[in-house]
Design brief:
The complex is a heterodimer of chains A (81) and B (147).
Chain A lengths: L1 E5 L1 H7 L3 E4 L6 H9 L3 H6 L6 E4 L2 E3 L10 E5 L6
Parallel strand pairs in A: 1-5
Antiparallel strand pairs in A: 1-2, 3-4, 3-5
Chain B lengths: L1 E4 L5 H9 L7 E8 L3 E2 L2 E10 L3 H16 L5 E6 L1 E4 L3 E9 L2 H18 L2 E7 L3 E3 L4 H8 L2
Parallel strand pairs in B: 1-5
Antiparallel strand pairs in B: 2-7, 3-4, 4-6, 4-8, 5-7, 8-9
Helix pairs in contact in B: 2-3, 3-4
Classes of the chains: A alpha+beta (81), B alpha+beta (147).
Chain lengths: 81, 147
Amino acid sequence: MIKVLFFAKIREQLKTSEIVVNENPETVGDLRKLLWLNGPDWKSNLSNDTSLVAVNQSLRDDSMPLKQGDEVAFFPPVTGG
Amino acid sequence: MIQVQHDDFDLAKEYSALIESNHSDGAVVTFVGLVRDFNQGNRILGLNLEHYPGMTEKALQEIVLDAKKRWELGRIKIIHRIGQLAVNEQIVFVGVTSKHRANAFAATEFIMDFLKTKAPFWKKETSENHQYWVDAKQSDHKKAQQW
């Protein structure tokens, strides 16, 4: 089980803040491709160009391996400060 | 020390805490960021700040640790507000002390540059006609890359 969180514009566009993935994607890239299967909105909002990804609350890229129980978050480039 | 909070902060109190019984530091640099009335061509009435609880604090802590590796620093305090903020309200506070001014100046700017590109906060602005998510600025990324 992998917990997947969405924030800001991506959360709004996908109309969900959290889902649970029961498959076992090996990497962040594999998870991303799995989520794209949910529809065109998912593919456009979770593309490599428009979203950042964190695994267990640290910024990572698509090559990051995943394990059961990980928390993965997708979000737009940050705009705080 | 790091605080992510809805409540406003008092610059005088934060400054006092940085210098109280601090006999070794001769420099204090503070930065405060405010909500501006115009951004990206729109007249702004206010904004809402969303964040990623847990990761926000972790990201800010990592930025502080990076700053401490680069410069000899005394005390460091970061406050970032979340939720609904009106024009002219305070958004962010960074305070750094050091023995001499150069380190505190540099570290304060470093912390802000990385806060703006690494810490998971997002602004949604309200203008007269609509609400929209603020786009990340390329110039902020260029600035962080200079370090």
